[in-house]
């Protein structure tokens, strides 16, 4: 049986085909796990941010810098910004014209498959692993995104959920 031959692209091919990076890390897309619970999730999100040309915004918690350093397996510095108070930071982002999209199970949530690519600077907010996005932050969202599931769990972990939504917002998935 003669079928199509699969040609694996080389690292050189991949680098040549990639989209150019944004001029500034704050130009387009920011992942904001503002209430992190597990350091491993931050490292995974950092890799996804690099893959889609986004930045990571995190609060100044004592364990976060070490988690990011341990999780950054890239050969270059990652694009990380510190938020301070998450609610005030989100409000400033809205005041500056950013769209604020939360990954949350809410009655008015848009299904992931229906989420369009970001057309302007967008901050994707991720909540706490167990309690989600706090109520005062929900009031700052322009849009909530739901990831439909058929299994027995009610949600994915922060790193997986954030990665899926980042790919959609970046127009890559």
Q: Could you provide a short overview of the structure?
A:
The chain is α/β, with parallel strands linked by helices and 173 residues long.
What would you note in describing this structure?
One of its GO terms (biological process) is RNA processing. This is RNA methyltransferase. Its EC number is 2.1.1.34. One of its GO terms (molecular function) is tRNA (guanine(18)-2'-O)-methyltransferase activity. Keywords: Methyltransferase, Transferase. There is one protein chain. The protein has one domain (38-169): SPOUT methyltransferase, trefoil knot domain (Alpha/beta knot, 3-Layer(aba) Sandwich), CATH 3.40.1280.10. Helix 2 links the parallel strand 1 and strand 2 (55-58). It is globular, with a radius of gyration of 17 Å. Helix 2 (39-52) crosses helix 3 (64-71) and helix 2 packs parallel to helix 6 (158-169). The mean pLDDT is 86. It has a 7-stranded parallel sheet with strand order 3-2-1-6-4-7-5, sandwiched between helices. It has helices at 11-17, 39-52, 64-71, 86-95, 135-138, 158-169; strands spanning 29-33, 55-58, 80-82, 99-103, 110-111, 122-126, 143-146. By secondary structure, it is of the alpha/beta class.
What are the main properties of this structure?
Alpha/beta knot; alpha/beta; 6 helices
Give the arrangement of secondary structure elements.
Layout: H1 11-17, E1 29-33, H2 39-52, E2 55-58, H3 64-71, E3 80-82, H4 86-95, E4 99-103, E5 110-111, E6 122-126, H5 135-138, E7 143-146, H6 158-169
Parallel strand pairs: 1-2, 1-6, 2-3, 4-6, 4-7, 5-7
């Amino acid at each position: 049986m003669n079928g199509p031959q699969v040609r694996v692209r080389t690292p050189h091919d991949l680098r040549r085909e990639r989209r150019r990076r944004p001029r500034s890390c704050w130009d387009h897309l920011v992942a904001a796990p503002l209430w992190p619970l597990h350091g491993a999730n931050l490292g995974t999100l950092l890799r996804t941010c690099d893959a889609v040309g986004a930045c990571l915004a995190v609060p100044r918690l004592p364990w976060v810098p070490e988690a990011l350093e341990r999780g950054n397996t890239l050969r270059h510095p990652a694009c990380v910004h510190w938020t301070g108070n998450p609610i005030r930071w989100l409000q400033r982002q809205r005041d500056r014209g950013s769209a604020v999209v939360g990954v949350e199970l809410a009655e008015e949530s848009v299904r992931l498959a229906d989420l369009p690519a970001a057309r302007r600077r967008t901050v994707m907010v991720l909540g706490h692993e167990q309690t989600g996005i706090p109520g005062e932050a929900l009031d700052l969202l322009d849009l909530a995104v739901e990831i439909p599931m058929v299994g027995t769990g009610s949600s994915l972990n922060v790193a997986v959920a954030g990665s899926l939504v980042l790919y959609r917002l970046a127009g890559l998935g």
